[in-house]
Write a structure and sequence with these properties.
The chain starts with a strand and ends in a 6-residue tail after the last helix. By secondary structure, it is α/β, with parallel strands linked by helices. The strands form 4 sheets. Strands 4, 6, 7, 8, 15, 16, 17, 18 and 19 form a 9-stranded mixed β-sheet that branches. It has a 6-stranded mixed β-sheet with strand order 10-2-1-14-21-20, sandwiched between helices. Strands 3-9-5 form a 3-stranded antiparallel β-sheet. The protein folds into 2 domains: about 170 residues, FAD/NAD(P)-binding domain, CATH 3.50.50.60; about 190 residues, 2-Layer Sandwich (D-Amino Acid Oxidase, Chain A, domain 2). A hairpin with a 2-residue loop joins β11 and β12. The protein is built from 13 helices and 21 strands. α1 packs parallel to α12. The longest helix has 16 residues.
Length: about 425
């Protein structure tokens, strides 16, 4: 089956890999450089401990309260376009306990075999940087700890092991933490992956398998014959024939699907990250500073800080105030942070968000051979291998690992 995969981020490349392994003739089209978008600047971890969906009880209300704080962890810009306002209103309807629990359950199912799949990648010669230091969710206040603990039953039901820590036990688990951090949840199974090494390795493996990977090639339109997409037309008028098309382009996915004739609400949730090399402190584990909503991930010779959620941004420009808030969270959380050298230029990028907080995976109603794999919000790295496997199962008429009910909940036709 000749398949065109549009999008060269970690989700698109993982999708292309699963299809290529199954014997498909795969062409990947990436408008920029593979792995250079949201995949490049993510928190660099397989974050099963943080699989909660973005729409949660009280989230948008908190965002409205924070609108006057330019350094807040969640920002909703008031001057957004009407389409974005509609998106936020739809998200508000999912900020309830029932939808939150259902979304968490879906994410835990979809990411349940992430570690095993990444291990299999390495066994198949996909060479990338991966660590198994676990993750410590670090809390300053008992209120935030208790709020997060309300969802722990779902993790227990899914078989995830974690440890509750209080007082000195938190700093025993991570000695670099200051006394400001009083509570913690440690998930030993979570991992860290340097994302650029992963996307580079996936590109190399795809080429080894005979797939074509083309960068700097955007898609202008599609050619259809009845209910079938027969070709993709690039911005330089090249026509690439296809038996199947997969749109896995992150935030631009929505615009591409509109060209196919189907509306799927995927909007930007802007995030930031800062790399330090050399790392200013030694850490035993990766962390998330939950009160500030900042991830701290140790890699080989580098420490990454990542955080914030900014709704309504129309570009990937770096906001210095928000970057300084991330720096401040590290100064306050680690007793020996000091004034680190080796800070790289801060990164900002757009993550693909959906109103219900769930990814969009499956076949489109408007064409029998058009598929989508996008909308993973902040869990693109975590859910990429599982999402790719589910998509390949659907496309190749194999029995998916997800139940029909769960497949319906991530279908692009649910909107």
């Amino acid at each position: 089956m000749k398949t065109v995969v549009i999008g060269g981020g970690v989700v698109g490349l993982a999708s292309a890999y699963e299809l290529a392994v199954a014997g498909c003739d795969v062409t990947v089209l990436e408008a920029g450089q593979c792995g250079a978008g949201a995949s490049h600047g993510n928190a660099a971890k397989v974050a099963l401990a943080e699989s909660t969906p973005v729409p949660a009880p009280g989230v948008l209300l908190q965002g409205i309260k924070w609108m006057l704080r330019p350094d807040s962890p969640l920002s909703i810009r008031p001057s957004v376009a009407p389409g974005y306002l509609k998106f936020l209103l739809r998200m508000a309807t999912h900020c309830n306990a029932r939808d939150f629990a259902a979304g968490l359950d879906l994410h835990l199912h979809l990411g349940s075999d992430a570690n095993e799949l990444f291990d299999e990648y390495q066994r198949q010669g996909i060479d990338f940087e991966m660590h198994d230091r676990g993750v410590l969710l670090a809390f300053e206040t008992k209120e935030r700890f208790d709020e997060h603990s309300a969802s722990l039953a779902a993790f227990e039901s899914a078989g995830h092991v974690f440890e509750r820590l209080h007082g000195d036990a938190v700093r025993t688990a991570e000695p670099a933490l200051s006394e400001r951090i009083r509570h913690g949840l440690f998930f030993p199974a979570d991992r860290q992956i340097e994302p650029d090494s992963l996307t580079r390795a996936l590109v190399g493996k795809l080429q080894e398998l005979g797939a074509t990977v083309r960068e700097g090639v955007s898609v202008n339109s599609f050619v259809r014959s009845g209910d079938t997409v027969t070709a993709v037309v690039t911005s330089d008028a090249e026509v690439i024939t296809a038996d199947a098309v997969v749109v896995a382009a992150g935030v631009p996915t929505s615009g591409l699907l509109a060209k196919l004739g189907q509306k799927v609400p995927i909007y930007s949730g802007k995030g930031y990250s800062i790399d330090y090399s050399p790392a200013p402190i030694e850490l035993r584990t990766s962390l998330t500073l939950e009160d500030a909503r900042v991830a701290v991930t140790p890699l080989n010779g580098t420490l990454r800080l990542a955080g914030t959620m900014e709704f309504g941004s129309r570009d990937d420009n770096v906001n210095g105030v928000r970057v300084e808030a991330i720096r401040r969270s590290a100064r306050e959380a680690f007793h020996s942070w000091g004034e680190p050298v080796g800070e790289k230029a801060p990164w900002a990028g757009s993550r693909p968000m959906t109103p219900d907080g769930l990814p969009v995976i499956g076949r489109l109603d408007i064409a029998k051979n058009a598929y989508v794999n996008s909308g993973h919000s902040m869990l693109g790295l975590t859910l990429a291998p599982g999402s790719a496997k589910v998509l390949a199962d659907v496309m190749l008429d194999r029995r998916p690992s997800l139940s029909p009910e769960l497949l319906a909940r991530i279908s692009p036709n649910r909107f």
